[in-house]
Amino acid sequence: EKSQCFIKQYGSMDVKSELTGDLLGKLDGRRTRGETIADNGGLNTAYRAYRDYVHGEVETTKYTKEAGEKMFWIRFGQSLCEKDSDARLQFLLTSRYPPNRHRLIGAVQNSVDFAKAFNCPVDSPMNPTKKCVLW
């Protein structure tokens, strides 16, 4: 089943203190499955909408296309940027919502388009060979 890929991917993620770097636990991939699938699907849909808009409405040069692609991903990252206390991270370990850091990393790891925009080498942390795709 395709959702098993998300369970395994997110379930292997360590949650560490943003203050000390100490390991607080591992994400529960089963518990967060619904949210992580929604994050991945939503990101892919948003990227396709962005790409369709840019290609349909705006005359772009190679420079503006490349900069625009990168800005899409940077803005996505900014939308999930936060500093979490250890108490909040401990709470999120028992929640269906993973910490935003893990939501961001997991979703972009599964995106071929992200890796292409930033020239991430194959098998690097942000461009693993195995990607989880539901649709």
From TrEMBL:
A Gene Ontology molecular function term of the record: metalloendopeptidase activity
Record's GO cellular component terms: plasma membrane
Chain ranges of the Peptidase M13 C-terminal domain: 1-132
Taxonomic superkingdom: Eukaryota
SUPFAM superfamilies: Metalloproteases ('zincins'), catalytic domain
InterPro entries: MetalloPept_cat_dom_sf, Peptidase_M13, Peptidase_M13_C
GO terms for biological process, alphabetical: protein processing
One Pfam family cited in the UniProt record for this chain: Peptidase_M13
Residues in the signal sequence: none
PANTHER family: NEPRILYSIN-LIKE 4 (PTHR11733:SF237), ZINC METALLOPROTEASE FAMILY M13 NEPRILYSIN-RELATED (PTHR11733)
Protein name: Peptidase M13 C-terminal domain-containing protein
Originating species: Aphanomyces astaci (Crayfish plague agent)
